[in-house]
Amino acid sequence: MPFKASARAALDGLSHPRWLWSYLMNGMPELKNFATDDASDTASQAAVLRRQMDASFSWDDLRRLRDEWRGKLLVKGIVTADDAARCVELGADGVIVSNHGGRQLADLPATADVLPDTVEHIPGSTVILDSGVRTGADVVKVMALGANAVMLGRATLYGLAARGETGVSDVIEMIKRETDRTLALIGCRSVGKLDRSYISKRPS
């Protein structure tokens, strides 16, 4: 939505002097990852992002990518065990179980719910969990369910919004402390020792 000058916008800017000063000195924030000579403003950078996120990506594309890329290959956005198995069959080294934070389709299953079946379908392959991890206790739960690692997104963005780079570091340290505390409280020496025996399911 393009910016529209108004009395309300002016008052909002004046009530946030640090942001206003940054805006006057640096201009509007940009998507630096996508800034090129042909995409120097936010709208054109957003168009580049849309082109790169091609919804028509298919299994044939994954096979071609595997043929052309000799490094490690993980496929993100997996929410079914069958898709995880197909990725590995086509040469992926593992998968990232992710519903993209629930932003794309609100009714996708929770990643922790599909994680155990996914791990069982691709033994020996890397399984990383993304989406929904907010605390150290969450980290312990998903590692106990079989994840090799956990990705943090929104939790660090909260810190970024509050205190910039320092806030991100604070959130990461907080989650590390919570993870250590949770491990101590359940009597487990490290995340590498976790397994499903530490998980208690509620009766259905």
Kindly list the characteristics that best describe this protein:
single chain; 2 domains; alpha/beta; 4 strands; globular; 204 residues; four-stranded parallel sheet; 50% helix; TIM Barrel
What does the model show?
- The chain has 204 residues and is of the alpha/beta class.
- It folds into two domains: 7-52, no CATH class; 59-198, Alpha-Beta Barrel (TIM Barrel).
- Helix content is 50%, strand content 7%.
- It has eight helices and four strands, in the order ααααβαβαβαβα.
- The chain has helices at 7-14, 17-26, 42-52, 59-68, 81-89, 111-121, 136-144, 154-186, and strands spanning 74-78, 94-97, 126-129, 149-150.
- It has a four-stranded parallel sheet with strand order 1-2-3-4.
- Strand 1, helix 5 and strand 2 form a beta-alpha-beta unit.
- Helix 5 packs across helix 6 (111-121) and helix 7 crosses helix 8.
- It is globular and about 60 Å long.
- The N and C termini lie far apart (46 Å).
- This is (S)-mandelate dehydrogenase.
- Keywords: Flavoprotein, FMN, Oxidoreductase.
- Its EC number is 1.1.99.31.
- InterPro entries: Aldolase_TIM (IPR013785), FMN-dep_DH (IPR000262), FMN_HAD (IPR037396), FMN_hydac_DH_AS (IPR008259).
- It is an enzyme of class 1 (oxidoreductase).
